[in-house]
Fold this sequence. Notes:
about 350 residues, mainly beta, eight-stranded antiparallel barrel, about 10% helix, about 55% strand, disordered N terminus
Amino acid sequence: MSKIIGFLIICLSYTINAQVNPRFYSVKSHYGFIIAHTPDLKPISQTNPYGIQLEISKLRTSDKAWKTCFCYGRTGFAFTYFNYANQVLGSSYNLIYFVEPYFTYQGPLKFSLRGSIGATYLDTIFDEESNPDNLLFSTHFSFYLALSLNLNYHLNEKYAINLSANYNHISNGGQKQPNKGMNFPTLSIGIDRIIDHTKLRPKPSELKQYSRSWSYYFGSFASLRSSDREAESSNHPLIGAMGGGLKPLSGINGFNLGAELWYDWSDAKIAQQRVINDSAFSSAFTAGHHFAVGDFYFLQQFGIYVTRPKNIQGNWMYQRYSFWYSIANRWTIGASLIAYGRTADHMDGRLIYVIK
């Protein structure tokens, strides 16, 4: 009887330990530069932004969590303050959610990739009279996106230091002009305090199986745009539908083909204001590459217009960058950014149904 009780205690202890998710409390400093992606931005881009970041995150170790990206990974929240060392640009306060899959996890040195999304408050924005040189920001509230490559070195089971190369982007998604948006790489150095450290072990290979057949998706998307790009109060809806196919080429890589159609009430308003006979309907074929990592999709697509309001939209091609996340069964939510060359135009939210 004592042996049975001892065996049960060992099994219970193993189960509890297997479900422990290490927690990280972190602080890091940033220093970088601003990319002047158009000539008119050079006068206000000759500065070096700096900042400080506070984080709380969790490293999920269960089989279910591992299957979301076929890897161990951290998820968490961060608050970041950036000072742009420029009176024209001021400072920003950023609330961020991030996911950080590990590429290597055995031994003290770990290599990871982090994707971040969030909201930012900008304390200094464009004003035609008092701050006409700020062509980057025209709304106090904007979107924040970032991609980071990280090296994490564990000093012991309680502390780790990290070095990160970050590519940061801030834009209001086309809600108001001017909206050149800011791209600013930074280098950051930080330290982590680790609670409930757990040694990471390889997962069974059968957890990494994936389908090689086509998947098909159908969905809708929506956004708000302004017919008067100088006025935040004149927002009009943009509503669209999309569909297409996703073909895996490897465990994480694939290509995609699709089509999308949308109606933009702000274009209809502009056509009315200019007294031009342009339709507010746009349609396009899309093609591109995607990363499919467990429940995550990262898509980079080119769109070729079939129809568009030619007097309003002079471009015949665009880029679309999308992030999807599977939430339940075949349902997926996401967001996308449409851009023309180096100019971001607008963002939208997406609801997608995927048939595998």
